[in-house]
Amino acid sequence: MTFFIQMVITGVVVGSIYGLVALGFVLIYRASDVLNLANGEFVMIGAYIALTLTTVLQLPFWAAMILTLVLSGLLGFVVERVVLGPLRTAPVISVIMATIGLSSLLGGAVHMIWGHQNRSFPQVFPTTPIRIGEIIIQPVYLWSFIIVIILLVIFSIFFKFSKLGIAMRASADDQQAAMTMGMSVKTVYAVTWIIASVVASVGGVLLGHINGVNAQIAVIGLTVLPVVILGGLDSVAGAIVGGFLIGIIQNLAGGYLDPLVGGGLKEVVPFIIVLLILMLKPHGLFGKRGIERV
Q1: Rounded to whole angstroms, how far apart are CA atoms 55 and 205?
Q2: Helices 92-114 and 39-55: angle between axes, nearest 10 degrees
Q3: What is the Cα–Cα distance from 230 to 22, expressed in whole angstroms?
Q4: 51 with 110: CB under 8 angstroms?
Q5: Cα–Cα distances in Å, from 247 out to 242, 253, 256?
């Protein structure tokens, strides 16, 4: 029972990070009906930027984190303006292919700048494990979970009550109607990419503290896809719930099933779960069924 609870706790922490990164997927999809297949590279770049600021420039972690978010937001803005802005009226498949090309470009740039070695952040979080009976919780897991929950609450308040957040929701629901009400869809696109890049960077930094920083961290872009599809491509709540579900199920599969099959099942289980869910609910758990009038 102790092992089970330990696996669930780790799954909740990792799942919360999945949900945060999936939020970027959902925001971009809601704004433009496009899947950003370069999202994993944004996660990786955020981790490497924070690592460089803390180890090379010797900045305090809080200062490095703020500067990382600023630089990540700037990267998202530049990508939207330079790469995807000109494709706004292009077919969706063209934009998706552009994000695949962007993924390769960013991944190659990371390899050239930072190389392939696994690197570690300086110790930021306490190292003394937290014990609750026989259950042991590493402080980095606890703080990562707290940070993610705080950010999710902040973004929820932003989307629900701020003028810009309401404009983003309105544009996602009906761009034409939003434009007739005087909203700038161009600005909404830019802000969407900035937020998506920022949350991806936060996820990268937290994962970097847990597992170290290397090029494999970009794989989270593929891991989060089942989260997004499971929750619903257009649902913010679905991204969060899907993140927790996939994180817990994946961790339990790694703890109980991987030893039986020799490993590797942990990475496959999320996609199996998604296939089963989509057979019953093609739009995901919280996705909206599209209605087309002809």
Answers
A1: 13
A2: 30
A3: 11
A4: no
A5: 8, 10, 14
Give per-residue pLDDT as tens, 233-260: 778 888 888 889 899 999 998 888 888 8
Q: Which residue has the tokens 């110790």?
A: 123
Measured between alpha carbons, how far is residue 255 from residues 17, 145, 248, 263 in Å? Answer: 19, 20, 11, 10
In the chain, where the domains are located: 2-280
| CA distance linking residue 95 with residue 118, whole number of Å | 32
Token pair, residue 134, equals 């026989």
Residue type at 289 in one-letter notation: R
- What count of other Cβ atoms lies within 10 Å of the Cβ of residue 173? 12
Residue 42 has pLDDT above 50, yes or no: yes
pLDDT in tens, 262-294: 777 888 888 888 888 778 887 777 766 554 443
Token pair belonging to 119: 């690197």
Closest residue by Cα to residue 222 from 21, 15, 13: 21
Q: CB-side exposure of 22: number of CA atoms within 13 Å?
A: 32
Give the contacts of 235 (CB within 8 A, at least 6 positions apart). Answer: 26, 284, 285, 286, 287, 288
205/227 Cα distance (integer angstroms): 20
The total number of residues shown for the chain amounts to 294
**Is residue 56 classed as helix, strand or coil in its secondary structure?**
coil
Classify 136 as helix, strand or coil: strand
Q: Which amino acid is at 222?
A: L
Compute how many other C-beta atoms are within 10 angstroms of the C-beta atom of residue 86.
10
**Rounded CA separation 117/8 (Å):** 30
Nearest by Cα to 191 from 205, 170, 176: 170
Per CATH, the number for 2-280 is 1.10.3470
Two structure tokens written together for 282: 């093609």
